[in-house]
Structure prediction request, 104 residues.
Amino acid sequence: MTVPVRTLDDGAWISVNNARAVSNSDIWPLASYDFCDCDVAHVLCESFFDVSVHRDTIAVGAVGQCIDCGSQDTIDALPVGRVIDGEFRAFEAGALQAVNEPQS
Ligand SMILES: [Zn+2]
Prediction:
């Protein structure tokens, strides 16, 4: 089953199954991703430039900024949630997550 995913509003939203699923005002704690010098980078995703599906996991490409140190960088494939039975289930924004290597 293919789940339609795309970016909306110039990267302000991620759409999953034609519904707005992830907004660019979310902050993602990145513990295992080398984003900046912080132990855990709290990254505000400013805009999304890519979204992809690997198996049932939705990953986004985003431009983000660490709200702790101010570093700005891009993230190639940040997992933000999964599709279970055709429905998007966001990962807990406060949960530490592993970032998959891009597979494409
Ligand atoms: Zn930082």
In short: Residues 36, 38, 41, 66, 68-69, 71 surround zinc ion (CB under 6 Å).
